[in-house]
């Protein structure tokens, strides 16, 4: 048993309170500590991924209590990969927040940030359904704190929607857990997998309800139709670096469905066979449609990006809903891709929006300084989001399309993805044309008297290298993901296969005799 | 891997690597920039030259690098005759365009950017023609759409450029998406995404039930790219690009990608009725329509654009006919069209560049002013018209020959007549181009006095014009072998009989050709009246329709989105609840339920009373929730009833927790309510409240049903283990507490962090509130009538002060006994915070604050850290996080209690709970200070001891 497995939770959990009370008066100190913590997290995550890469399922029994009586952490390829993704994203986002000064616009940014990381990592690593609830709470409350960081009326209003919807989700989570416990008498995921498989079809009504309720809970996090409503306003109004970090938050929902609805309620379970996919698939199609339509109809840049995130979740969940190893591989590839793509767009948007007098409104305005640079970043981010080559979105989409070959899925799935892509391309091209092309014409035709400096407006600085670097890093990640698609997919395929053979998971957690 | 095959990937990557150069080299000057742009192209061309002899011998050069083998995507390339033809065209034209653009672009245009885009495009286009993997081909395909978007929008300040770019992207990008579908189906049928594999599977593919969808999707991709009717409209608008781009992308290469694809897939997809009717008909319509429109265009580039549309139609039709002969003719015409059309575009660009207009109506007589340009333009335009001795004539004759033998839906006439008509119109616009621009009298009203450009600018079109003549006169010698090898690659087997020569004798094609030339001349002579007629006739304007379509979809999308996401939280929740109940019900219906195993119990009187109280209180909360103060009191009642329920069900820990949480929450809410309106306004109409009521009741019934279902059934749980191991393993007899701090201490660890974060968040929220506009509102609101005159009453101060030590002792007691008896750090923290809260309420925050020295941030921090370090301490013993160790201590007077790591952990819980509650209180009091609450220095407003003292002092 390697103690490193718990490090992604304990490290930020110890660091965050120190930042909150020892370093709360000095932002530089807080930045340094937080940055060091995230850097260490990346290193740990790399180590864990290497550890999980051997194909084993590593179990960490908290308090030395045997499963299913205590809580266990489970490290396999999937959870290791998610932790690594979180850590890398966090490093990018944090650098942006510090370089642009976002972290100093309110209190406790870095403490909340570390708590947020703790919550996300905890959710990815846990092997216990109730513990998953606890970490959902941790990441919800921390994300709420981050979401309203910096304050402002609109942001607080959006924050209220966010927290209310998610608290409703938490309540439902408790209902679901109660139902599960009342049916199986356990909450350990591996133990549940065993118990649920023993439930006969003619006594399955309760566990089916529980499976469905859990899926709805996770779908709230993943922003699926018809409970995606909270996302656009939240992401559009959150501080941009926070919105970028939230790119991983929706993935927590996707991860939870991938984990629970394969290991516990997988396709081979008689009681719930086919239930998750049947309902997830149409929801994903609708989500993709809503996202794509939202992108086309948006009048502001931030909501436009937020809707593109909704669309990407729809695409991702289409692949998840197929519940086959190959589709899951595609889903995981797309998951990594859409995380960085969403983050890149939000970070890029922050650079531009903070330098435009019109903010994020998609209206004609004079070009900002560094128009060319921002245009290039937007172009790259838009390519990624729309799933155009040469960035990884195209490969991800190809894989998903390839995986949705089943006759029952092909028409709806392909139409949604391809038509959705077209709407997104048209929408993003429109936005980019207004923001970066049309603006050059405005500057050229401006009468000279308007050019004199407005004394009230604060001077607009060009973005320094450190401010641009995080966006570029996110785009570079997408490029690398595209170039090294082969090796990455090898890992992801192994992770999916692991997911669809719960026997190993069960044996690792409960001991060999239970895993057959 | 032979040496040839290792060259192929290098050729493919060269333009992309080269694209990095111009952006930098522009700093060394424009000529240096152009030279370094040409370098990778030349290099690639040389390498292609090295490979060419092998290909001409009929070999196919292949190279393969694995990329994403799981999907079947590999970076594999192959070079056969067709690939060689196109690769040569792309690179050769690329070189000429680089030269031409050096002189065409003005000093204000960012040339580095232009050449970067150009090389990126070149790489993408080259990729299409040498890909041996259809997924790779799709990647390059989409890349050409993207680079074309950038190039069309190159002059970003011009609205036509921006709109043209977006239109082209929407149409060709959209077509590309359709093609993705088609290609995936194709690969699915063939069992491989490798082109060389697919090409061998023609029969299986044509027989498959998925053939038609695949064909249609692929054709959409090809037709959009090659501007076939009804997708042709984007091409003329792409002419907003600089002329080198028009010449390169929109006549010579990119628009041929669709034709290339038809040729590439010809062995697999052609030969069916569907192919014949869809492809040849589309091509025929496009050919005639494009030529017709071209006649009436006054913009030189627009004329050429529609003529390109027409010629692409011609190529499409030839490939659509499905005969080997027609396919070879198509290959030949691809070469010819490239030479004359690119030269024509460049000539038009020269005219525009020199005369500062491309409007035919403002031109004329240029032959005398710019003889070199005129010579080039006239030679190439005659070729376009299909006049003997020029190469266009040869392929047109062969096209007419192929058309004359085609039967379309039983008719022998349709295709030949329409093909002749197309040729006729083509003659007309070609002659118009010559006569209206270059012939006629010299005018004196050109926007700028035209003259021949420098050699560098006419070198490229001049070179092409020479080719036009050479091929036109000696076709078999110059391009015969290339046509043979490329045609062989298209038809995938034996070449049909054909001969490349000027004189075929008097045959049907010659007659048709003569009709075309004569008719074309007539049309040109009648141009003026025909033009008036055309301008007067109503016809759909594609751009208007397209823009309206896009605007309407954007407006509709915006409308749908904004109505769907209108920000109404009650609506979102309503949808959530309805969906949850419906889905839960659906899930329930899919399975059956075994009969209940537990009998219903009789209801004791005391339970009934409690239940009624609970129900009444709940109903009252619903009815009275607009009066917030009363509602809060009622919520308190509900909380108490729940606690009583816990007591009744023998859960003292839960009851204690519930009571203390309830108390703290209600107190904090009461404090917060002070700053809020006391009434909730009525916001929704009756029907909506009714709707919400129905939804709420429905959900309540559903939850009840669910709870009843599992309450009436037996199940076995893991909790027996906890009961058995609580003392032996966890060192405590209070199982609840041992679960909290040991069995599931990790959950507790998470939950205290939640509490700590909540404290921090509230604090951060308060700080940002008080620095924003809310602070002003607070300051300006008059709360005085809400305030009691006796804010710190004597009785309360004395009572709380007396209770304080007792409460603290109780708290400590509860804390210490927690492991064995009901209690624990969580409850203890709440109890002590209640004791402190009461001090604050009694004597005011500032007074109390001055008397306590612990920082709340620190308390939360220490709490979390202590709990965390306690857990981590187990690592020293080599045990997992949060493994407990314990011993027993007998404190005389109290009782024996366990002192172990769990104790320390519980201390962390205690500190965090206390700190979080107090930080929340502190945040509220800060708001109160902003709202104008005065700071009291005395513990109470009226202090009798002061009065006694005063009397005593006064008495003396």
From TrEMBL, chain A:
Membrane topology, from the record: Multi-pass membrane protein
UniProt main location, coarse: membrane
Keyword line: Cell membrane, Membrane, Transmembrane, Transmembrane helix
Described function: NDH-1 shuttles electrons from NADH, via FMN and iron-sulfur (Fe-S) centers, to quinones in the respiratory chain. The immediate electron acceptor for the enzyme in this species is believed to be ubiquinone. Couples the redox reaction to proton translocation (for every two electrons transferred, four hydrogen ions are translocated across the cytoplasmic membrane), and thus conserves the redox energy in a proton gradient.
Domain of life: Bacteria
Annotated localization: Cell membrane; Membrane
Pfam families (UniProt xref): Proton_antipo_M
Residue ranges crossing the lipid bilayer per the database entry: 6-23, 35-53, 65-93, 109-126, 132-150, 162-184, 204-224, 236-258, 278-298, 305-326, 332-353, 365-388, 408-429
GO MF entry, a single one: NADH dehydrogenase (ubiquinone) activity
Keyword Lipid biosynthesis: no
This protein's name: Multisubunit potassium/proton antiporter PhaD subunit
Cited InterPro entries: CPA3_Na-H_Antiporter_D, NADH_UbQ_OxRdtase, ND/Mrp_TM
Family assignment from sequence similarity: Belongs to the CPA3 antiporters (TC 2.A.63) subunit D family.
Chain ranges of the NADH:quinone oxidoreductase/Mrp antiporter transmembrane domain: 128-412
From TrEMBL, chain B:
Topological relation to the membrane, as annotated: Multi-pass membrane protein
Domain MrpA C-terminal/MbhE, first and last residues per copy: 687-766
Name of the protein described by the UniProt record: Multisubunit potassium/proton antiporter PhaA subunit /multisubunit potassium/proton antiporter PhaB subunit
GO cellular component assignments: plasma membrane
Keyword Transport: yes
Primary location class: membrane
Keywords: Antiport, Cell membrane, Ion transport, Membrane, Transmembrane, Transmembrane helix, Transport
NADH-Ubiquinone oxidoreductase (complex I) chain 5 N-terminal domain sequence ranges: 70-115
Function noted in UniProt: NDH-1 shuttles electrons from NADH, via FMN and iron-sulfur (Fe-S) centers, to quinones in the respiratory chain. The immediate electron acceptor for the enzyme in this species is believed to be ubiquinone. Couples the redox reaction to proton translocation (for every two electrons transferred, four hydrogen ions are translocated across the cytoplasmic membrane), and thus conserves the redox energy in a proton gradient.
Any GO MF annotation of the entry: antiporter activity
One of the Pfam families matching this protein, by short name: MbhD
Domain MrpA C-terminal/MbhD: 613-678
Record field: transmembrane: 6-26, 33-52, 72-100, 112-130, 167-190, 210-235, 247-269, 275-296, 372-393, 413-434, 455-482, 502-526, 572-591, 603-622, 629-649, 655-673, 694-712, 752-772, 793-814, 826-847, 859-877, 897-922
Annotated ranges, domain Na+/H+ antiporter MnhB subunit-related protein: 796-918
Source domain of life: Bacteria
């Amino acid at each position: 048993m390697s103690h490193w497995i718990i490090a992604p939770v304990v490290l930020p959990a110890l660091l965050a309170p120190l930042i909150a009370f020892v370093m709360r008066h000095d932002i530089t100190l807080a930045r340094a500590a937080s940055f060091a913590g995230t850097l260490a997290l990346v290193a740990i995550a790399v180590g864990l991924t290497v550890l999980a890469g051997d194909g084993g399922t590593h179990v960490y029994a908290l308090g030395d209590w045997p499963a299913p009586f205590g809580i266990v952490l489970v490290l396999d390829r999937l959870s290791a990969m998610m932790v690594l993704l979180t850590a890398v994203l966090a490093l990018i986002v944090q650098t942006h927040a510090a370089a642009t000064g976002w972290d100093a616009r309110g209190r406790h940014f870095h403490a909340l940030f570390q708590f947020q990381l703790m919550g996300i990592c905890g959710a990815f690593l846990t092997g216990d359904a109730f513990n998953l609830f606890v970490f959902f709470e941790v990441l919800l409350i921390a994300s709420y704190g981050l979401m309203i960081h910096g304050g402002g009326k609109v942001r607080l209003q959006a924050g209220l929607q966010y927290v209310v919807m998610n608290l409703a989700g938490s309540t439902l989570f408790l209902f679901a857990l109660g139902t599960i416990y009342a049916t199986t008498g356990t909450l350990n995921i591996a133990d549940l997998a065993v118990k649920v498989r023993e439930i006969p079809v003619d006594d399955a009504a309760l566990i089916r309800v529980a499976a469905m309720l859990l899926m709805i809970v996770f779908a709230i996090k993943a922003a699926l139709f018809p409970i995606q409503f909270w996302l656009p306003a939240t992401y559009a109004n959150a501080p941009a670096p926070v919105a970028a970090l939230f790119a991983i938050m929706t993935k927590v929902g996707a991860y939870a469905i991938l984990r629970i609805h394969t290991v516990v309620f997988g396709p081979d379970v008689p009681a719930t066979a086919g239930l998750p996919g049947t309902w997830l698939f149409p929801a994903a199609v609708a989500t993709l449609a809503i996202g794509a339509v939202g992108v086309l109809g948006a009048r502001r840049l931030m909501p436009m990006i937020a809707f593109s995130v909704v669309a990407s979740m729809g695409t991702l969940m289409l692949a998840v809903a197929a519940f086959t190893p190959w589709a899951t591989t595609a889903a995981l590839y797309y998951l990594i891709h859409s995380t960085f793509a969403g983050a890149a767009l939000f970070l890029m948007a922050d650079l531009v929006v903070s330098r435009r007098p019109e903010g994020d409104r998609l209206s004609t305005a004079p070009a900002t300084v560094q128009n060319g640079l921002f245009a290039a970043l937007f172009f790259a981010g838009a390519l990624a989001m729309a799933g155009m080559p040469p960035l990884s979105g195209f490969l991800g989409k190809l894989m998903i399309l390839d995986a949705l070959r089943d006759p029952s899925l092909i028409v709806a799935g392909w139409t949604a993805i391809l038509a959705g892509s077209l709407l997104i391309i048209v929408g993003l091209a429109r936005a980019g044309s207004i923001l970066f092309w049309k603006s050059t014409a405005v500057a050229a035709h401006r009468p000279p008297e308007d050019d004199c400096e407005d004394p009230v407006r604060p001077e607009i600085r060009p973005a320094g290298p450190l401010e641009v670097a995080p966006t570029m890093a996110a785009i570079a990640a997408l490029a690398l993901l595209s170039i090294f698609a082969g090796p990455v997919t090898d890992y992801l395929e192994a992770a999916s296969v692991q997911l669809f053979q719960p026997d190993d998971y069960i044996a690792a957690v409960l001991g060999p005799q239970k895993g057959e | 891997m032979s040496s040839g095959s290792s060259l192929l990937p290098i050729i493919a990557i060269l333009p992309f690597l080269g694209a990095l150069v111009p952006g930098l080299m522009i700093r060394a000057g424009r000529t240096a920039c152009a030279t370094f742009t040409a370098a990778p192209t030349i290099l690639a061309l040389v390498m292609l030259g090295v490979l060419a002899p092998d290909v001409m011998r009929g070999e196919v050069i292949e190279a393969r690098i694995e990329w994403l083998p799981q999907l079947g995507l590999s970076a594999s390339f192959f070079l056969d005759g067709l690939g060689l033809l196109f690769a040569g065209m792309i690179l050769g034209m690329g070189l000429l365009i680089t030269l031409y653009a050096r002189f065409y672009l003005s000093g204000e245009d960012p040339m580095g950017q232009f050449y970067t885009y150009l090389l990126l495009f070149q790489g993408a286009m080259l990729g299409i023609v040498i890909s041996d993997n259809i997924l790779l081909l799709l990647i390059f395909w989409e890349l050409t759409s993207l680079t074309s978007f950038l190039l069309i929008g190159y002059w970003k300040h011009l609205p036509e450029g921006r709109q043209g770019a977006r239109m082209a992207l929407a149409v060709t990008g959209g077509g590309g998406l359709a093609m993705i579908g088609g290609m995936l189906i194709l690969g699915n049928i063939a069992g491989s995404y490798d082109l060389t594999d697919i090409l061998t599977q023609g029969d299986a593919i044509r027989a498959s039930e998925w053939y038609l969808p695949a064909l249609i999707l692929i054709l959409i991709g090809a037709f959009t790219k090659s501007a076939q009717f009804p997708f042709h409209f984007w091409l003329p608008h792409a002419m907003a690009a600089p002329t080198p781009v028009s010449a390169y992308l929109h006549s010579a290469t990119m628009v041929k990608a669709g034709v290339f694809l038809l040729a590439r897939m010809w062995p697999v997809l052609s030969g069916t009725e569907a192919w014949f009717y869809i492809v040849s008909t589309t091509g025929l319509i496009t050919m005639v329509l494009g030529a017709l429109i071209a006649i009436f265009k006054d913009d030189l580039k627009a004329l050429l654009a529609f003529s390109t549309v027409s010629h692409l139609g011609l190529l499409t039709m030839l490939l659509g006919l499905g005969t080997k002969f027609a396919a070879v003719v198509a290959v030949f015409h691809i070469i010819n069209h490239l030479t004359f059309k690119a030269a024509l575009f460049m000539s038009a660009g020269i005219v525009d560049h020199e005369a500062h207009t491309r409007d035919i109506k403002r031109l004329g007589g240029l032959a005398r002013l710019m003889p070199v340009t005129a010579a080039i333009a006239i030679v190439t335009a005659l070729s376009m018209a299909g006049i003997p001795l020029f190469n266009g004539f040869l392929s047109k004759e062969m096209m007419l020959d192929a058309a004359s033998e085609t039967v379309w839906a039983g008719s022998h006439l349709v295709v030949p007549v329409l093909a002749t008509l197309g040729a006729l119109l083509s003659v007309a616009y070609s002659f118009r181009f010559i006569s209206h621009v270059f012939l006629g009298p010299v005018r004196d009203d050109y926007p700028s006095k035209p003259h021949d450009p420098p050699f560098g600018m006419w070198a490229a079109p001049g070179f092409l014009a020479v080719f036009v003549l050479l091929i036109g006169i000696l076709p078999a010698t110059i391009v015969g072998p290339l046509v043979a090898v490329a045609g062989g690659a298209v038809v995938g087997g034996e070449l049909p009989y054909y001969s490349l020569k000027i004189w075929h004798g008097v045959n049907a094609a010659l007659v048709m050709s003569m009709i075309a030339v004569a008719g074309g001349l007539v049309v040109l002579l009648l141009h003026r009246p025909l033009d008036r007629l055309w301008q007067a006739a109503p016809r759909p304007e594609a751009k208007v329709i397209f823009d309206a379509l896009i605007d309407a979809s954007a407006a509709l999308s915006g409308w749908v989105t904004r109505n769907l996401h209108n920000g109404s939280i009650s609506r979102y929740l309503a949808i959530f609840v309805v969906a949850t109940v419906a889905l839960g019900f659906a899930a329930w219906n899919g399975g059956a339920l075994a009969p209940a195993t537990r009998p219903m119990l009789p209801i004791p009187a005391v339970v009934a009373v409690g239940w009624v109280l609970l129900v009444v209180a709940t109903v009252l909360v619903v009815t009275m929730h607009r009066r917030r103060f009363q509602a809060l009191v009622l919520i308190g009642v509900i909380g108490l009833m729940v606690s009583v329920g816990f007591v009744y069900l023998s859960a003292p820990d839960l009851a204690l927790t519930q009571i203390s949480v309830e108390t703290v929450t209600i107190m904090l809410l009461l404090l917060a309510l002070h700053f809020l309106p006391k009434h909730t306004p009525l916001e929704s109409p009756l029907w909506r409240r009714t709707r919400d009521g129905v939804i709420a009741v429905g959900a309540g019934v559903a939850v009840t049903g669910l709870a009843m279902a599992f309450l009436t059934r037996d199940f076995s749980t893991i909790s027996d283990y906890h009961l058995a191991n609580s003392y032996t393993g966890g060192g405590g007899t209070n199982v609840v507490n041992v679960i909290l701090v040991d069995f599931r201490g990790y959950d507790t660890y998470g939950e205290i962090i939640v509490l700590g974060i909540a404290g921090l968040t509230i604090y951060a929220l308060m700080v940002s509130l008080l620095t924003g506009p809310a602070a002003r509102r607070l300051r300006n609101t008059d709360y005085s009538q809400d305030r009691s005159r006796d804010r710190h009453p004597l009785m309360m101060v004395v009572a709380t002060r007396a209770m304080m030590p007792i409460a603290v002792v109780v708290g400590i007691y509860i804390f210490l006994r927690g492991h064995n008896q009901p209690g624990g750090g969580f409850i203890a923290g709440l109890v002590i915070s209640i004791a402190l809260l009461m001090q604050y309420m009694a004597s005011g925050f500032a007074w109390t604050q001055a008397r306590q020295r612990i920082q709340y941030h620190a308390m939360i921090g220490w709490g979390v850290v202590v709990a965390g370090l306690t857990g981590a301490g187990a690592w020293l013993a080599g045990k997992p996080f949060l493994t407990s160790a314990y011993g027993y201590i007998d404190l005389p007077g109290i009782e024996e209690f366990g002192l172990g790591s769990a104790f320390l952990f519980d201390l962390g819980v205690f500190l965090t709970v206390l700190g979080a509650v107090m930080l929340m209180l502190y945040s509220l009091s800060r708001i109160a200070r902003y709202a104008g609450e005065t700071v009291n220095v005395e513990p109470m407003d009226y202090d009798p001891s002061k009065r006694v003292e005063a009397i005593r002092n006064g008495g003396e």
